[in-house]
Amino acid sequence: MNRMIRPAILALALWPALAFAQASPGATAYPEWDQLTPAQREALIAPLRERWNSNPDERMRMVERAQRWKTMPRDQRDHARHGMQRWEGMSPEQRVEARALFHAMRGLEKEQRKAFMAQWRKKTPQQRAEWLKAHPAPERRDPSRRQ
Amino acid sequence: MNDEPNHTGFDDDARFDRALRQHHATSVERVSPRVRAQLAQRRNAALRGGRVAPAYGMRYAAAGFAAICALAIGLQFGLMPSPTSPAAGSGIASAAAGSDTTMLDEDPEFYAWLASADAQQIAME
Questions:
Q1: In the prediction, which pLDDT does A107 show?
Q2: Which residues contact B10 (CB under 8 A, 6 or more apart)?
Q3: Using CB atoms and an 8 Å cut-off, which of residues 21-50 of chain A contact chain B?
Q4: Which residues of A touch B99 (CB under 8 A)?
Q5: Rounded Cα gap, residues A106 and B109, in angstroms
Q6: Which of A7, A104, A118, B73 is the most buried (most CB within 10 A)?
Q7: Any A CB within 8 A of B82 CB
Q8: CA of A135 to nearest chain B CA: how many angstroms apart?
Q9: pTM for this structure?
Q10: What is the enclosing helix (H) or strand (E) of B65?
Q11: How far apart are CA B122 and CA A118, in angstroms?
Q12: Contact B93, A43 (CB under 8 A)
């Protein structure tokens, strides 16, 4: 009798975990690209096609960025995805500030970066606004200026 | 005239009854002594009004619950949208409209920097 009851009790104990695993977002994972239907592939490509067709001046940079995504090491690509999620949650003002700070800091050595950040943290909002006005990030729509 | 079929029917019933009893006796003889002892024990317990197998209720409850769980799993798989369903396609479309175009908005190095410790310290809040 116990031989039947014990597995049943074990199964009941594991049931909530199984149910949770099935209800988690990972359970709704989509298949590999090759297994998607033509309609699903079309749905994925459509926004990109629309953007490509409506922004002729951006095409070169789109290709460059796509190639850089492709050649990035996997860990750095994961890092970039996290940053992209942060970017999507930012306000327009925060984006302007982020782009300006990135371009100001990208060529600096480690010690210089630390000093820059220390100075930045000491600045008042007014001083930061003045700095941003004086050191804007390169325009995004100017193809002659690489960001 | 009318008694004949009844009489014949009675004989048939008796013959059928005897045959069945014989089969039963033969079958009982084939049952192992151990099983027969268990059956006798349970019959005595039932006649005394006691509970022969208190765990039967628990066993039936577990079996019932397992059946409900199996049904729930089946329903869950049945209700999951298939990859070819329109709902799945629209879900992909809405996801693609966001991240895929954002991906090419800025340099990937910039996005990586946004996730770096440096950018976290500056915060941009």
A1: 86
A2: none
A3: 22, 28, 30-31, 35-37, 39-40, 43-48
A4: 84, 88
A5: 10
A6: A104
A7: no
A8: 16
A9: 0.51
A10: helix B55-79
A11: 9
A12: yes
The stretch A98-116 carries a mean pLDDT of 92
> Could you give the 3-state DSSP secondary structure of residue A125?
helix
- Measured between beta carbons, which residues in chain A are less than 8 angstroms from residue B104? 48, 51, 61-62, 65-66
First to last CA, chain B: 110
How far, in Å, are A7, A19, B62, B101, B125 from residue A13 at the CA level?
A: 10, 11, 11, 45, 45
What ipTM, to 2 d.p.?
0.71
Using CB atoms within 10 A of its CB, is residue B116 exposed (0-12), middle (13-18) or buried (19+)? middle
Residue A71 has pLDDT above 60, yes or no: yes
Record: contact B59-A5, CB cut-off 8 A: yes
Enumerate residue ranges in chain B where pLDDT < 50.
1-4, 81-86
Q: Which residues in chain B have Cβ-Cβ distances shorter than 8 Å to A40? A: 83, 88-89, 92
Residue B108 and residue A1: Cβ atoms within 8 Å?
no
Cα of A33 to nearest chain B Cα, Å:
12
